[in-house]
Design a protein that fits this description.
- The chain is an all-alpha fold and 79 residues long.
- The chain is built from three helices and no strands.
- It has helices at residues 12-35, 40-49, 57-78.
- Helix 1 (12-35) crosses helix 2 (40-49).
- The chain starts with 11 loop residues before the first helix and ends with a helix.
- The chain crosses the membrane at residues 12-36, 56-78.
Amino acid sequence: METAHETIELDALAHSGAAAVVSAVVMFLPGVFGAVSVYEGVVEMMEQWHLFFEPTVVGTVAGMIEAAIISFVFIYAFA
């Protein structure tokens, strides 16, 4: 039986993995929109701020990997 004074422990690995997946999906969307010439401003900003992102298939996959790794490391470090 749980008491009111128990502490909840967060699973850092699970949270980091979830953040990596969310970041990769969010990076995928500008890649798709850039390929069909929608939201050009977002695509330009992503190209400026991300090292590997381009609105091509390879650039989108590289941006997704970049976003997943960065998110995983930061969330794991602070969780």
